[in-house]
Automatic annotation (TrEMBL):
GO BP terms in the entry: monoatomic ion transport
Organism listed in the record: Aequorivita vitellina
Superkingdom of origin: Bacteria
InterPro entries xref list: MATE_fam, MATE_MdtK, MdtK-like
Protein name: Multidrug-efflux transporter
Localization in the cell: Cell membrane
Keyword entries, A-Z: Antiport, Cell membrane, Ion transport, Membrane, Transmembrane, Transmembrane helix, Transport
Any Pfam family: MatE
Length: 462
């Protein structure tokens, strides 16, 4: 083996490799979540209807994005494997194929979403005072799907080869750009026309276009580990089949999560506006845990994938075990901190309402007990994805949400008459079940047997 200096992720200390991958990914994920915060800040100056019009679109936008974004995971897995196997021609070819497929997928989704905007907003229940703004915002956002998906695939490919800092820098730049463009396109200035609510979508599309352009230039130039080419962008049925085999389960997983967000909100809203507010605060606190957990899971996918590509199965397993320990103990510690400061955190958002503070703090305290298990599940999903066994992640996520959490939330809150507290308890119980199932399945070693059977994948040619 002559790769001592070629690939630090298949050699040396695993903890160093894991942290060097995870920290920039977590940073980039946190930055990307800032888009919504910036939009909400500036739209809030237009009034509550403006915020409501955009908020109504988020679940649908997230659902559409998840259908295509899952396919980008296939790019991460395939590139990571070929990188570990030191098969640069296939790194470049599979990257070109991934960009080609994502481009086609994004164009189709953009067209469908654009012309479905009106009916979708009516179905979701947009009132007459916000229907026009909701439809326009959704239409403009749909036009940006092409740019957004192209940057997603760039990000995924770079993560697959272990180059995680470059996407983070680009995300930082575009977040700053979006913060400048948001007020410009919402309110207008000088010769630039203000578009109101739609202006926030225009600003996002422009920044997404800039990010996509930068990403494509980097990939075509080939100076950062991947070089794509137009000549390799065609329908290769073997690669297409492989991509869908890996990416379709991830798309299903993410889209069911998007649907799940809507379904849970139906149960929550039945208990009144105070509980909705408490749930909203708890959900925001949960996102502060989910974002780094997802980042650690993605880092595990890349690390496991590269070591599998190098046929270092034992090192891949060691990386997964180490990542599991970091996730479980690290997020358990974060959960303990959040448990202790639950009431001040809730009061920060709604300082005057004692009932909401009580309910929100109780939700956070109950949830925080299982943050370590949540982190463990994400790392196990990352391990299965890195091994190319994306169906396992899909089944575990579907089980967590649809078989355990939602039925349990309904049963506890209504059948057992626990009220909103029943909804709160459905979170740690479902995390417990998912964590145990995922880790137990990991320990069976079935994912390693699949890798051994699939070694022919590593030597595949164009």
């Amino acid at each position: 083996m002559t790769s001592k200096k070629k690939n630090k992720f298949t050699e040396g200390r695993i903890i160093s490799s894991l942290l060097s991958l995870a920290l920039p990914i977590i940073f980039a994920n946190i930055l990307q979540s800032a888009y919504q915060l910036i939009d909400t800040f500036w739209l809030g100056r237009l009034g509550a209807d403006a915020v409501a019009a955009v908020s109504l679109s988020f679940p649908l936008l997230f659902l559409v994005l998840s259908l295509g974004a899952g396919l980008t995971l296939a790019g991460t897995v395939m590139v990571a494997r070929y990188k570990g196997a030191e098969n640069q021609p296939m790194v470049d070819f599979s990257s070109s194929q991934s960009v080609f497929l994502i481009l086609l997928t994004s164009v189709i989704l953009a067209i469908i979403s654009y012309f479905s905007a009106g009916p979708l907003m009516n179905i979701i229940g947009a009132g007459p005072d916000i229907i026009d703004d909701s439809v326009l915002y959704f239409k403009v956002s749909s036009l940006g799907f092409v740019f957004l998906f192209l940057f997603f695939i760039f990000q995924s490919l770079m993560r697959g080869i272990g180059n995680v800092m470059l996407p983070a820098y680009i995300v930082l730049f575009t977040v700053i750009l979006n913060a400048v463009l948001d007020p410009l396109f919402i309110y207008g200035y000088g010769p630039v026309q203000g578009y109101g609510v739609a202006g926030a979508a225009v600003a996002s599309v422009v920044t997404q276009a800039v990010a996509a352009a930068i990403g494509l230039i980097i990939l075509f130039r080939g100076r950062h580990g991947i070089k794509i080419s137009l000549a390799s962008m065609y329908f290769n049925m073997m690669n297409l089949k492989r991509t869908f085999k890996l990416g379709l389960p991830a798309s299903i997983e993410q889209s069911t999560r998007a649907l799940g967000m809507t379904f849970m909100m139906v149960i929550v809203t039945s208990f009144g506006s105070d509980i909705v507010a408490a749930y909203g605060i708890g959900a925001r606190m949960l996102s502060f845990i989910v974002i780094p957990a997802l980042g650690l899971g993605i880092a595990t996918t890349s690390l496991v994938g590269q070591n599998i590509g190098a046929l270092k199965i034992k090192r891949a397993e060691k990386a997964a075990n180490l990542s599991a320990k970091v996730a479980f103990f690290g997020f358990t510690g974060l959960g303990l901190i959040m448990f202790l400061v639950a009431e001040p955190l809730t009061a920060f958002f709604i300082p005057e309402d004692t009932q909401v503070i009580h309910d929100g703090a109780l939700f956070i305290k109950i949830m925080s007990l299982s943050f370590g298990l949540l982190g463990l599940q994400q790392v196990m999903n990352g391990t299965f994805n890195g091994a190319g066994f994306t169906k396992a992640s899909m089944f575990i996520s579907i089980m967590t949400l649809w078989i355990v959490r939602f039925p349990l939330a309904y049963l506890l809150s209504y059948t057992f008459e626990m009220g909103p507290e029943g909804i709160w308890w459905s979170f740690p119980i479902s995390n417990l079940v998912a964590g145990i199932v995922a880790f137990s399945y990991f320990k069976t070693g079935y994912w390693k047997k699949r890798v051994i059977r699939d070694r022919s994948f590593l030597t595949a040619q164009e």
